[in-house]
Please model this.
Amino acid sequence: MKMWIVRLALRRPYTIAVFCLLIAFGGLFSLRGMLVDIFPTIDIPVVGVIWNYPGLSAQDIERRVTTYSERGITTNVNGVSKIESTSVPGTGVIKVHFQPGTNIGTAIAQIGASVQTGLRIMPPGIQPPMVVQSNASSVPVAQITVKSDSVPEERLYDYGLNQIRLKLFTIPGLTSPAPYGGKSRQINVEVKPEMLVAKGLSPYDIVNALQVQNIILPGGSARIGTFEYNMS
Model:
């Protein structure tokens, strides 16, 4: 039944030749105007939630952080397809997969509200997580390593965070994450157990005393005549 195409091509060879040339020229014209991107934008309905709590074991991260966060997300976020989580010492990563067609902007807002509410039942002192959208075009293009034989790791970490990372922000379309590795600056307080026992105190009392002394409150202002001065 399809032999009529062959018979038509044999009867009108010039018409078929012109038709093929039109298709070829049309393809070349479309190819010149086609947009080309080495990393095209691909809409992937996946959002990542990254919790950080240095010093907490992987088991405690799972029981006290990721589990509570997953429960809150399944209760307060719409369009969830599945949830995957990974817990390692000090870090918990949750990947939330959504149904096709889900508004990712709304989903990120709902996840942000859910994790903020869940902070009340999290371990004391934990910081809000990072909520990021997975994007196939977000691939690493460069890796910078900072090392020194004389500068301490704390200063190298500060230099990478406050100097190198800030200079990379001016590159259009580039996102530079926080430095990985090294040591962040911190102050350790060593206590003497025998002194605590003698005074009837516990390490928790030391923590409370440090938190009370580390409060920053506004000094207000003072008005003298027609001038107003900020107090510090």
Observations:
- The chain has seven helices and six strands.
- Helices lie at 3-11, 13-33, 58-76, 104-118, 153-168, 193-199, 203-213.
- The longest strand covers residues 80-88.
- The chain has a mean pLDDT of 82.
